[in-house]
Amino acid sequence: MQEATAIRVQPAPSAGSAALGTPPVAPTIHARTSRRGFAAMDKTRQKEIASAGGRAAHERGNAHEFTSEEARLAGRKGGQTVSQNRQHMANIGRKGGVARGQRQEVPARTQQD
User: Fold this and answer.
1) Cβ–Cβ < 8 Å for 31, 25
2) Where are the domains of the chain?
């Protein structure tokens, strides 16, 4: 039986190393090499294809259309989820209070003139 030998690979000096005292270099992001697929198309072409798919689904009858009850329940569910974030709700309230205060200040100044 042959004995396996371990091979140690040293990082390239440009990759950075704590032993060398150099910071690591971010990997380069290569430009897109392939012009294939939906994501590579321009936005207008993507919109045309998506629109055609939506029309076809409606023609076949398998496109989902929300009823007013489904829409109401979905909106309620989203509102409940958002309102669980207390910090977010406090920020919304603070912003509304500031806006209201600014609206009230403007008429008071114009009446004095």
Assistant:
1) no
2) 65-100
